[in-house]
Amino acid sequence: MSRRGFVLAAADIAAATFVRPASSRTSAVNERRIKIAPGQAQLSGPAGPHTPVWTYDGKVPGPTLRLRQGELARITVENGLDEDTTVHWHGIRLPNTMDGVPGLTQPPIRPGESFVYEFTPPDAGTFWYHPHANSLVQLGRGLAGALILEEVEPVAVDRDLLWLLQDWRLAAGGQIAPGFGSAMDAAMSGRVGNVVTVNGTRPAYQNVKAGERLRLRLANASLARIMALRFEGHRPVVVAIDGQPCDPHEPEEGRLLLAPAMRIDVIIDMQGDPGKRYAVIDDYYDGLSYTLTTLAYDNVPPLRAQPFDAPVRLPGNPLPEPDLARAERQEIVLQGGMMGGGKLKGVGGMMGMAMPGMNGTAAWAINGISMTGDGHSGMTPQFTLKRGATCLLTMRNETAWWHPMHIHGFSMSVLSRNGSPVPNRTWQDTVLMAPKDTVECAFVADNPGDWMLHCHVADHQMAGLMTVFRVT
């Protein structure tokens, strides 16, 4: 099935002490407070209708939290919703008790109650935060925010910009469409929406100056939409993926492929002409390309005559290097979904008695086991690793759908895809797998606890594409 076809079909129908890097600032504490509550947003701009949403501190997206690498953060989260919630600090290597999975790592935050998250982030980079309770609905109603961890030494750029991207399924009058958790979404591409926002609105343009160097942080906080961004007339250089620096490189075919939960940092030298405009286009889905925004150059002389001559490579983070010669091999196999080439236990296939995902049934499985929902106590680990061991993890996608697989508590070195080495020394916490892909990754199990590994298409996770592994 074409990308256009499946999108249209889906749219219609234990306490741990983590080793922290040495830092002169470890005695400092960066304290923040965040309140989660219902609110309003104008997702189509100032002249558009108001949309009832759920917010962090009254904002969609939530406030951008800028912290410092190696500095202790203490963040108090107050729940002003009428249901339980948590906060997951996506991509941060932190103690298991701070990971935000209800039942598995912490009690849920009940309505009217608060929870204090405390951790010292070892890595600089672009991360984000979101709920891990009733994830499909809470993310779909707007709960997401960026978490930027600043390097010890500032990176040499003229401006540091963030685009937090969210995808919304809106009905008439700007209201969020009902139907969260439909069987069609659960068993196919997930809840892909019809409106995409940048930092909570639909911006017509982004002001830029000729000759300046931008660090642009892209974060996809969508439920299911995959994006492929092209910057007309420009050559962005990828310098980090999922917060982790990589070998600087231009993306394949000039398109930045950004799945739900992924982040990509790029450096762009603005070499366009003063006064001109250049489109930023998302053309991932066949026949459904659109202009995300436009780079609008000020009509003034260039900031500098020659391109910025500082290096674009970012300083490395203190990631432990896997010992592949002594690695323990583990494998997970993704199964299920419509046209999945197999049946889940107790669930009819495409021509069976029931559609996968109907009436809350499982639509997906990992190694034949479906874990549904958001995580809970007593989840049996798929595998167990000794602390300090290297895990060589093979992920096989036997389904007909794309899956961004997210690991909690770690960042993985992505080694190969379908037998071919992955270039540019890429580390990721969210690995996008195409249908029938096989990806090999490795990480050092240096962070004890029970950790989730799941698809970050929220419908897929809730319908069974989730597992747990243990580090002892």
TrEMBL record:
Domain Plastocyanin-like: 46-151, 179-283, 372-471
CDD domains membership: CuRO_1_CumA_like (cd13861), CuRO_2_CumA_like (cd13885)
Domain of life: Bacteria
Coiled coil (residue ranges): none
Keywords of this entry: Metal-binding, Oxidoreductase
Record-linked Pfam families: Cu-oxidase, Cu-oxidase_2, Cu-oxidase_3
Full protein name: Multicopper oxidase family protein
InterPro entries from the UniProt entry: Cu-oxidase-like_N, Cu-oxidase_2nd, Cu-oxidase_C, Cu-oxidase_fam, Cu_oxidase_CS, Cu_oxidase_Cu_BS, Cupredoxin
